Amino acid sequence: MAIRTILHYPDPRLREKGLPIESVDERIRTLIDDMAETMYAAPGVGLAATQIGEAVSLFVIDVADEEEPSELRVFINPEIVSKQGKSCSREGCLSFPGISEEVERAAQVTVRALGRDGKPFEITADGLLGVAIQHEYDHLQGKLMIDHLGVIKRRIVHRQSLKRDLE
Ligand code: GNR
Ligand code: NI
Q1: How many angstroms is it from 47 CA to the middle of ligand 1?
Q2: How far is the CA of 47 from the centre of ligand 2 (A)?
Q3: Which residues contact 163 (CB under 8 A, 6 or more apart)?
Q4: Which of 144, 125, 136 is nearest to 76 (CA)?
Q5: Does 1 have pLDDT greater than 90?
Q6: Interacting residues of 47 by C-beta distance below 8 A, sequence separation 6+
Q7: Domains of the chain (ranges plus CATH)?
Q8: Which of 38, 59, 116, 166 could in theory staple to 48 by disulfide, Cβ–Cβ 3.0 to 4.6 A?
Q9: Which contiguous run of DSSP H or E holds residue 138?
């Protein structure tokens, strides 16, 4: 396993879309292991493949609290099949280190994906898991936290990100 480098905004590779994965083979399982290791090391609650420069449709999430056993969730070729309600919460992103902003999302989502075993599953989630699913799903569309902000906050976060990369 290997810890991979997480790309920081405004790296153009964060704008690439995650292409569908045709078969869940050894290469993909190795990528999943690397992503999990990278996410836990960061630490973060989720990581999308596009954040490490792999333009494939895959993300991992673990929203378990520190005192709980870890619960890695793998989403391959995810599709959000329904959304309900609206909810605002403070989000961070490993591609925007040091920044957190309020983002409006659906309160609940239902997502269909393939798991690490290549088998399809569907879950309905709210709370942090629901937010994380929408956040990671966005990454696979090349969409970032900053795109959810109003023009003023967007400019501030953009400038902070450029400044940070000079430090
Ligand atoms: O670690 C992360 N925390 C987080 C907190 C609130 C909402 C979303 C997230 S995802 C983020 C990791 C990340 O950047 N995933 O793409
Ligand atoms: Ni992110």
Answers
A1: 7
A2: 6
A3: none
A4: 136
A5: no
A6: 6, 35, 36, 38, 39, 59, 60, 94, 136
A7: 12-166 (3.90.45.10)
A8: 59
A9: helix 127-140
Q: Quick check: 2 and 34 in contact, CB under 8 A?
A: yes
Residue 86: per-residue pLDDT = 98
Ligand 1 centroid – CA 45 distance (Å): 5
pLDDT at 165 over 90: no
| Distance of alpha carbon 39 from alpha carbon 41, whole angstroms | 6
Name the residue of 94, 147, 157 to mutate for ligand 1: max ligand atoms within 8 A of Cβ: 94
Q: Which atom belonging to ligand 1 lies closest to the Cα atom of 136? A: 16
Radius of gyration, CA atoms only, the chain: 15
Is residue 52's pLDDT more than 90?
Answer: yes
Ligand 1 proximal residues by C-beta, below 6 Å: 44-48, 51, 91-95, 131-132, 135-136, 139
CA count, 13 A, side-chain hemisphere, 3: 6
Question: Distance (Å, rounded) from C-alpha 6 to C-alpha 46?
Answer: 12
CA 30 – CA 125 distance, rounded (Å): 27
